[in-house]
Amino acid sequence: MTGVGLETKSRLAAILLSIAVAVVLGGLVVLSTGANPLSVYQEIVRGALVGRGLGETLSRSVPLIGMGLAAAIAFRAGLINLGGDGQMLVGGLAAALVALYVPAPGAVRAVLALTAAICAGGLYAWVAAVLQLGLAIPFLITSLLLSYIARGVTSYLVRYPLRDPSTGMPETYRVASAARLPSSIFDLPVSFGTLIMAAVAIAVIVNDKRGVHGFEWRITGLNPRFAGYSGTNLPRQTQRVAFLSGALAGLVGALLILGQQYRFTDGALLAPGYTWSGLMAAVLAMASPIATVVTAAFFAALQVGGFAMERALGLPAVLTWVLQALIILCLAARPVFSKRR
After folding, report:
1. Residue predicted with more confidence, 95 or 288
2. For residue 132, how far is the Cα from the chain centroid?
């Protein structure tokens, strides 16, 4: 346990140090545009953490943390899940269909929609695992290619048989208010989706630190041959991890549909790039669940603060993407400097 704690602290320290270095380098970039770096950073922090901005940051953190943990779970067990887009799409569409057409009370429909999304996303990722085990096609390739299939199928469905003819957009009917997730709790800037994702994150972290499966996943990720010799059923574990990773991505799709968008619109789930931002967070955190949550939340705050800075100072929000890129570069270069030292 001490070793795991030191590992997590080391990774968090590396992330914080990289953020500090990137802030300095980003300040130089801002200075080259003629703006005051202190004013820019002040507006970013204020826009992300003060007043309405805090609620927007928490709301944006939900999909980023979810997709980051989906990738981290797979990384931990030696799998690379690049199919988060497809798993999120099938989960989101499943949630929308259940919320729209299942004849049940609103709250029951919401629970059934979340369950359907989890199962749909998990099974879609499980198919990729079966293809790897049965046909020796790498999970990385199958998960990515299945995403393209999910894009095409969901796009066709919402453009034709499931389309709401009253709108000019390729989208489904609007989910009834009774089947939606509450956008706030006790007038606090915390949505029901935020609470669900917080519970999921805690469960993943506890399993990683104290659970038998979490231990087996870490051993498999470090040395699959040793894990096999020690008695781990590698094929069964591959299927289990793939299902859980896809289930989490499907849950993200459902939380976006039921808690923010209220209908499935073609391309709306993919436009913000949640999958790849979450994937970056997991990679930079070296698959540590705690560090993944911290990194994903920071990226969410950075993106929300960037839009606030653009409104307040008239500078392009793309500067925050430059800062995010600098953080990634600093973290990527850290092992080189550590080795030389």
Report:
1. 95
2. 24
Give burial (CB, 10 Å; 0-12/13-18/19+) of 312. middle
Which backbone phi and psi does 171 adopt, to 5 degrees? -155, 160
Are residues 96 and 264 in contact, defined by beta-carbon separation less than 8 angstroms? yes
Q: Which residues of 29-57 are buried (b: 16+ CB within 10 A; e: fewer)?
A: ebeeeebebeebbebbbebbeeeebbbbb
Question: Is 304 within 8 Å of 53 (Cβ atoms)?
Answer: yes
Local structure of 288: helix, strand or coil:
coil
Q: Tell me how far apart the alpha carbons of residues 15 and 31 are, in angstroms, rounded to a whole number.
A: 24
User: For 220, what's the count of Cα atoms within 13 Å in the CB-facing half-sphere?
Assistant: 24
For residues 258-279, average pLDDT: 94
Cross-strand partners of 265: 171
pLDDT in tens, 284-306: 888 999 989 998 998 999 889 98
- Where would I find the H helices in the chain? 2-32, 37-49, 52-76, 84-101, 106-135, 139-159, 192-210, 212-222, 224-229, 234-256, 274-284, 289-313, 318-340
Cβ–Cβ under 8 Å, residues 109 and 98: yes
**Bigger pLDDT: 115 or 311?**
115
What whole-number distance in Å separates Cα of residue 25 and Cα of residue 280? Answer: 20
Using the 8-state DSSP alphabet, how is residue 258 labeled? I
d(CA 91, CA 253): 5
Contact 251/200 with Cβ under 8 angstroms? yes
